[in-house]
Amino acid sequence: MRVATWNVNSVGARLPRLLGWLQEAAPDVVCLQETKCAADAFPAEQVAELGYATAAHGTSRWNGVALLSRVGLEDVRRGLDDEPGFPDPEARAVGATCGGVRLWSVYVPNGREPGHPHYAYKLAWLEALRATLAAELGPRPLAVLGDFNVAPTDADVWDAAAFAQSTHVTPPEREALGRLRALGLGDVVPRPGKGPHPFTYWDYRAGMFHKDLGMRIDLVYGDGAFTAAVRDAYVDREARKGKGPSDHAPVVVDLALDAPLPDPAAPPA
Fold it and tell me: I need a surface site. Which of 73, 179, 216, 239 has the fewest CB within 10 A?
């Protein structure tokens, strides 16, 4: 089973790229973030032509998440337990069971800057995520994938000094990630890419991608059953190249699961 996560930075702007990538990479499940469209505006018909069912969660031209699956899409949940808002809850989390694996696609708030109300919202949102996942842990494999807007360690940014007094690297944010891992979730770290670190995001400005001055903020956290099944993980840097890319690259994880996957050609139960 191949699962992936990708902040597409507008599914409308990136649709030709997304469709081409689905055909080339052939993931079984894709977690998308920053779709920037309402759920009823998501291009579900176009991805259905490639064999994917869609669970989209979006309310406006901001935020938005989705799950695309060709191995089943059951028990769909949109939003978190007791989810905080800014001021109202935003479309930042969608979960479903796909091929016997419980998966969540999440787009964690940016936080803007320490001390800003959006920073407090970010920390509260991460706690709601922790509580939601804690209630879902069980016999089936579980993983949460997405744009966390937090670099877990200083090695996950191109220059730690450049981020002093900034979000994404502060102790409270990293402690929030630590509380997620304390649930028994492991960090599935992709193979290094161009350089020694598997960065997943590069700012559009100043040639950051070509200089490989990036961050690892697109994360895959899985429980013991999920991480034990991991056979490979990589950042698809090719998807970040060319004209009009997202500023994020997909993270792809290959799993070897004991249970057989549902036949994607079979009619839904």
Answer: 179
pTM (two decimals): 0.94
| Annotation marks residue 40 as catalytic | no
Q: Which of 52, 107, 201, 221 is catalytic?
A: 107
Exactly one of 57, 168, 197, 248 is catalytic; name it.
248
Residue 248 appears among annotated catalytic residues: yes
pLDDT in tens, 201-255: 999 998 999 999 999 999 999 999 999 999 999 999 999 999 999 999 999 999 9
107 flagged as catalytic = yes
Q: What are the structural domains of the chain?
A: 2-255 (3.60.10.10)
The angle that helices 171-181 and 117-136 make with each other, rounded to 10 degrees, is 10
Tell me if 118 is assigned to a ligand binding site.
no
CA distance 253 to 248: 16
